[in-house]
Amino acid sequence: xxxxxxxxxxxxxxxxxxxxxxxxxxxxxxxxxxxxxxxxxxxxxxxxxxxxxxxxxxxxxxxxxxxxxxxxxxxxxxxxxxxxxxxxxxxxxxxxxxxxxxxxx
Length: 105
What we know:
By secondary structure, the chain is an alpha+beta fold. Helices cover 65% and strands 13% of the residues. It has one domain (3-98): Orthogonal Bundle (Arc Repressor Mutant, subunit A), CATH 1.10.10. A three-stranded antiparallel beta sheet has the order 1-3-2. A hairpin with a 2-residue loop joins strand 2 (57-62) and strand 3 (65-70). Helix 3 packs across helix 4 (41-53).
């Protein structure tokens, strides 16, 4: 499975996507995340493991716990992958717009 496939699969789960969005707002501990979602702390940890393995978040030790933040390298890979499609779409749009209009018959 490619990194991009793993990232898309990771974000396919609504709870995991919510956890990712919370971490994107600002770095958070598991306890902070658990207070914001409707699943157990154990479930939050499992979701974070999937997000970590797909390189969307990373854990930074802080005292006896970890604080989770966005992994800029992994997110950059996903953005580059998505940008390929956007670039192709813009190029096709540009080509269409720049074509001379057809003459009426």
